[in-house]
C-alpha cells in the first residue's frame, strides 16, 4: 500500500510501544504516519514537516503551510482518532448501525490524514531539490504514458482546476498495469478509492484552504506555481519501489 | 396549503419579498426581436453575426460590501461576490453562448441542467449563481435578531424552539465534509421546516423544497475572516 512508501527523514515510525506518551521513536521503519499505541488502540499524531513553514515560499506561503499543517491536518488526525475510538466501542458492543454510521467520518478524517501525510512529502524547498524534474525510470515512464513532462503537468493542472468543490488531483501508478495515470478524488477520499491498484506518487491538494490566503480564487495560479516545489525525487523513489 | 404563511424576516435576514422569488434574470436582446410575452420564451436563432441573445446578470447584494462587518469583512464580500459569484455568472454566460438553453428563469435553468441526476456542464454554474444570489439575501446588516411572526411559529412548531433549530443548523454546518451549503428549507411534501445540507453546488430547489435561508460553507466563504475556525464563522 502507499503507506509503506512514506519514509521521510523526520517521520515517525510504527512504534509498538504501549506507553501513551511515546512519540513512536526508533524501531521498525515503515508506516511513518505517527503512530502511538495505548490501551491496544492505535492512535495517530501529527508528523513533522521535513522543512520549515516558510521554506516553500514564494510558491506556497509560510502562513498557509503553518495553518495547513498545524490546524487542518491536526484536526483530521484528532477527529480520526476520535472516530476510531468510537468504532472500537461500537464493534465491542456489536452495534452494527453505529459501526456503519462511523464509516464516513473515518473515510473523511482518515483520508485527510493519509492524503496530507503524502502531501508534505511531495513538497520540497527549491534549495533542497524542489522542482527538479524526474530522472531515469519515472522520467521515461512519464514520457511514455503522457508524451512529455509538460503534457503531464498540463493535464494535472487542467483536472485540478476543473475539480468542483474540494478534492485532490493525483499522479498515480497502476501497479498492476504498470502505467501512470492522472486521477482526481473528491473531498478527502484517498486515491485507493479510485482503484485498489493505484499508488499515489504525487498529490496536489485543491481544497480552498490549500491556497486561498495567497492565491484567492485563482486556483490555476496555485497549480502553476506548486510545480516549483514539487519533490520528484520522492515520487521516483515510490515508483521504483513499486515497479521493482 | 395548510401551513402558516411564512414571514421571511429572520435573524440572518432577507428582503421583504419571499426568498424564493429571486428573479435575477436580465435579458438584453442585442438583435431585434419581438418583445417577449413571458419570461419563458424561446429566443430566435438569428442568422446574423451576433449570436448572443441573452445573458444573466450579476445581482448586487442588497447592502454595501462593508455592511456585514465585523462578522463578514468587506474584503470577503469583495472577493466572494466580486470574484467567485461573478465568475460563475461569466462562465455560465459563456457556456450558454454555445448552447441553446435560452429563455429560462434561473430556477428553471437549474432544474433543466440538473437533468434528473445527470447534470449538464452548465448546472454547476447556474446553481452556484442562484445559491449565491440567495445567500446575499439570507443576510442583512445588523441582523441577528429572532425571526418574527409566522416563521418563528413554524420554527417553534417544527424544531421545538428557536435555539434547538439554531443548534441543529450549526451542527449540520460543522459536520459538512468538503464543500457545500446548509439550508433551512420548507419541505413541500411534508409541509414542515427542515435543516438540510447539500454538496458542492446542489440546491434544494432541485427536489422541490423551498429554501428559506442558505449558508455557504465552501471555504472561500469564511477563510479570509476566520481561517479554519469555521465554528466561529457559523455562529
Automatic annotation (TrEMBL), chain A:
Signal peptide extent? 1-23
Listed GO CC annotations: mitochondrial matrix
State the InterPro entries in the record: Fe/Mn_Superoxide_Dismutase, Mn/Fe_SOD, Mn/Fe_SOD_BS, Mn/Fe_SOD_C, Mn/Fe_SOD_N, Mn/Fe_SOD_N_sf, SOD_C_sf
Alphabetical keyword list: Manganese, Metal-binding, Mitochondrion, Oxidoreductase, Signal
Q: Can you give the residue ranges of the Manganese/iron superoxide dismutase N-terminal domain?
A: 43-123
Protein name stated in the entry: Superoxide dismutase
The residue ranges of the Manganese/iron superoxide dismutase C-terminal domain are 136-235
Entry EC number(s)? 1.15.1.1
Which Pfam families does the record associate with it? Answer: Sod_Fe_C, Sod_Fe_N
Q: What is its main location?
A: mitochondrion
- Report which gene this protein is encoded by: MnSOD
State the similarity comment. Answer: Belongs to the iron/manganese superoxide dismutase family.
**Subunit architecture:** Homotetramer.
Q: Which reaction does it catalyse?
A: 2 superoxide + 2 H(+) = H2O2 + O2
Q: What highest taxon heads this organism's lineage? A: Eukaryota
Q: Where in the cell is it found?
A: Mitochondrion matrix
Gene3D superfamilies assigned: Fe,Mn superoxide dismutase (SOD) domain, Iron/manganese superoxide dismutase, C-terminal domain
Q: Which cofactor does it need?
A: Mn(2+)
Broad enzyme group: oxidoreductase
What does it do? Destroys radicals which are normally produced within the cells and which are toxic to biological systems.
Amino acid at each position: 500500500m502507499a503507506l509503506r512508501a512514506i519514509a521521510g527523514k523526520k517521520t515517525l515510525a510504527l512504534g509498538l510501544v504501549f506507553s501513551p506518551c511515546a512519540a513512536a521513536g526508533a524501531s521498525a521503519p515503515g508506516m511513518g504516519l505517527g503512530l502511538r499505541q495505548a490501551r491496544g488502540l492505535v492512535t495517530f499524531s501529527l508528523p513533522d514537516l521535513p522543512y520549515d513553514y516558510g521554506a516553500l515560499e514564494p510558491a506556497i506561503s509560510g502562513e498557509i503551510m503553518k495553518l495547513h499543517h498545524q490546524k487542518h491536518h491536526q484536526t483530521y488526525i484528532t477527529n480520526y482518532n476520535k472516530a476510531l475510538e468510537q468504532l472500537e466501542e461500537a464493534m465491542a458492543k456489536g452495534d452494527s448501525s453505529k459501526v456503519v454510521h462511523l464509516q464516513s467520518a473515518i473515510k473523511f478524517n482518515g483520508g485527510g490524514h493519509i492524503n496530507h501525510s503524502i502531501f508534505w512529502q511531495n513538497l520540497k524547498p527549491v534549495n533542497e531539490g524542489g522542482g527538479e524534474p524526474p530522472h531515469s525510470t519515472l522520467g521515461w515512464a512519464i514520457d511514455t504514458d503522457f508524451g512529455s513532462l509538460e503534457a503531464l503537468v498540463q493535464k494535472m493542472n487542467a483536472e485540478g482546476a476543473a475539480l468542483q468543490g474540494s478534492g485532490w488531483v493525483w499522479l498515480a501508478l497502476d501497479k498492476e498495469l504498470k502505467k501512470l495515470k492522472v486521477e482526481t478524488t473528491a473531498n478527502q477520499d484517498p486515491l485507493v478509492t479510485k482503484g485498489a491498484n493505484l499508488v499515489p506518487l504525487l498529490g496536489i491538494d485543491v481544497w480552498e484552504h490549500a491556497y486561498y490566503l495567497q492565491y484567492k480564487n485563482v486556483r490555476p495560479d496555485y497549480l502553476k506555481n506548486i510545480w516549483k516545489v514539487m519533490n520528484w525525487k520522492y515520487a521516483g523513489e515510490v515508483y521504483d519501489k513499486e515497479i521493482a | 396549503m395548510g401551513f402558516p404563511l411564512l414571514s421571511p424576516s429572520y435573524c440572518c435576514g432577507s428582503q421583504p419579498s419571499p426568498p424564493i422569488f429571486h428573479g435575477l434574470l436580465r435579458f438584453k436582446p442585442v438583435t431585434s426581436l419581438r418583445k417577449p410575452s413571458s419570461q419563458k420564451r424561446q429566443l430566435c436563432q438569428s442568422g446574423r453575426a451576433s449570436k448572443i441573445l441573452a445573458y444573466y446578470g450579476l445581482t448586487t447584494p442588497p447592502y454595501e460590501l462593508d455592511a456585514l462587518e465585523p462578522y463578514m469583512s468587506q474584503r470577503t464580500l469583495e472577493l466572494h461576490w466580486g470574484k467567485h459569484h461573478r465568475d460563475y455568472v461569466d462562465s455560465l454566460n459563456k457556456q450558454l453562448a454555445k448552447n441553446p438553453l435560452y429563455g429560462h428563469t434561473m430556477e428553471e435553468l437549474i432544474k433543466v441542467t440538473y437533468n434528473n441526476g445527470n447534470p449538464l456542464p452548465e448546472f454547476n454554474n447556474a446553481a452556484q449563481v442562484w445559491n449565491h444570489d440567495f445567500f446575499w439575501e439570507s443576510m442583512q446588516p445588523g441582523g441577528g435578531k429572532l425571526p418574527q411572526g409566522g416563521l418563528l411559529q413554524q420554527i417553534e412548531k417544527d424544531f421545538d424552539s428557536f435555539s434547538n433549530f439554531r443548534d441543529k443548523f450549526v451542527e449540520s454546518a460543522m459536520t459538512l465534509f468538503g464543500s457545500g451549503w446548509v439550508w433551512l428549507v420548507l419541505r413541500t411534501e411534508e409541509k414542515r421546516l427542515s435543516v438540510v445540507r447539500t454538496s458542492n453546488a446542489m440546491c434544494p430547489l432541485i427536489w422541490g423544497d423551498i429554501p428559506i435561508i442558505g449558508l455557504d460553507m465552501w471555504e472561500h466563504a469564511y477563510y479570509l475572516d476566520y481561517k479554519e475556525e469555521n465554528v466561529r464563522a457559523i455562529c
